[in-house]
Amino acid sequence: MAFSKTRFEELIRELASKFLSMESNRTSLITVTRVESDPKGSVANIYFTVFPDTQQNAALDFVKRQRSEFRAFLKNNARLMRIPHVDFHIDAGERSRQKIDGLMGGL
């Protein structure tokens, strides 16, 4: 990779956020929380949350269908030597943290 793994992941996160904002139908709020990549930058796992929670399955189906379009978006909007294989996942860790924060706020 031409730049650090951290910068690479942040670039993918920013572009995924922009792409999903442009492509979503606005029935739910999809927030990209983090990206994890392999050391070579050939795979990028994109994690996101959905509001409301009831739209999670629909949002996951939507983003999975958009993978090839997102790779094309990356190719056109990022100066990367290699466009990574991307996959999207619901960020269960972030959802758990939000629930704990909500419970702690009531104390």
Topology:
Blueprint: H1 5-23, E1 29-37, E2 43-51, H2 56-65, H3 67-77, E3 85-90, H4 92-105
Parallel strand pairs: 2-3
Antiparallel strand pairs: 1-2
Mean pLDDT: 89
| Secondary-structure-derived class | alpha+beta
Spatial extent as radius of gyration = 15 Å
Give the strand content: 15-25%
What is the assigned CATH homologous superfamily?
A: K homology (KH) domain
So what's the CATH class?
Alpha Beta
Q: Which of globular, elongated, flat, extended, rod-shaped describes the shape?
A: globular
What's the number of structural domains? 1
Proportion of residues in helical segments:
40-55%
Summarize this structure briefly.
The protein is α+β, with helices and mostly antiparallel strands and 107 residues long. It is built from four helices and three strands; from the N terminus they run αββααβα. It has a single domain, classed as GMP Synthetase, Chain A, domain 3.
How would you describe the overall organization of this protein?
The protein is of the alpha+beta class. The protein has a single domain (about 5-105), classed as K homology (KH) domain (GMP Synthetase, Chain A, domain 3), CATH 3.30.300. It is built from four helices and three strands; from the N terminus they run αββααβα. The chain has a three-stranded mixed beta sheet, sandwiched between helices. The protein is globular, with a radius of gyration of 15 Å. The N and C termini lie far apart (about 45 Å). The model has no long low-confidence stretch (mean pLDDT about 90).
